[in-house]
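FAQ: What does the model actually see?

It sees only this:
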Amino acid sequence: MTKILITAAGSYGDVAPYTGLGARLRTAGHEVALATHDSYAALVRAAGLEFRRLPADPRNRHAATADTRDPAQPDRPSGTGRNYDLMRHAAAFIKELGGGLADAAREDTGLLLLSATTAPLGHHLAEAWGIPFLDLPLVPGTPTGDFAPVVSGGRSLGRWGNRAAGRLSLRIIDRLYADAARDLRARLGLPPATPRTVRRRAEAAGRPVLHGFSEVLVPRPTDWRPGLDVVGNWWPWHAPDAQLPPVVEDFLAAGPPPVFIGFGSMAGGEGERLSTLVAAALRRAKLRGILQSGWAGLSTGHTSADADLLTIGEVPHALLFPRMAAVVHHCGAGTAAAGVRAGVPTVPVPVTADQPFWAARLTSLGVATAPIPFKELSGDHAVARLSQALTQATATPARRDHARTAAHRLATEDGATKVLKAVTHLTETDPPPN
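And it is asked to produce this:
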């Protein structure tokens, strides 16, 4: 039995998959704690894991921003100014996160499992405490000629250009973590070292990295070094006997399968505009819809009374998505995978960061319509464009066939068990000092 600390930070999609992974490790006999934000404490504890708090909860930051934002300036991450704002907020988030990560560690920790957000800080903890670690990112981050960095929008720059852009992306990440790394190393009593130096040490040592996504969507790059593996998704935990709320079951029984619409942690404060737009598009396509409120605040309360629409809060996608005619979402890594797992077509509406990358992957796989960039989901033609995509997604048999085929392939994978095997190997060959 090993005392394992998983660290994960960010929005729901950045954290929830590690609850399912942690539960799998706990079932195998390990003692597992998950350090993350207060917003996910209940989910962590429900999965049977010890909750340890990390600061910089993005849900609280979102609420504070939404309360003070000028309504004439909607939250649409696009353009140079918006990218600068994202970088500035990310650096502040990371700096606050560093101290909390040190507080979450314990002297008896035997293994660190690190998300992509926490790994550049967790490596310093592993060095200071002399314990093994394993990086478990949900997106590909190592440069490759096979595709451009996930934050570049999904367009290939050619093999040389893709690798060059990947290296540049890593340097940008190093800069984002520089202040937090400096403060953390000083606190831990470590000699100065830049994030780039620490990252290159890990690369030179050939440390294993297990990526929590499926080769159905992203085949393992041909030029990655040994040890960089794609193991398949690990899924958010939900109780084995969990069921959909009665109001959802009643809605599903009242008519044909509806369309799911949700934007997760994106589009904060645009609930009224988006709800009105989505309702109009669904009516034009003659489809029923389930709106997941999310951070945007989607709600049928923003639309005229309509028996063909239902608003819901947090519901496990694993239970809901297979009952849908199609799903419309922002294409975060976890939501994109959940749609494929359910075997239903997707209408991608990517907003920022890695979402255009996953949207392009879904489209190339044949399970999704052409993406509608979120910034284009406005104006006089937005309702018609979304309505047309909804019709394409629900009325094209080939797209549903592709979705079902992809779901069957995904069902053969067991990413959590592969992590468990790696954990067993790592703790047997690289045990922490007594």
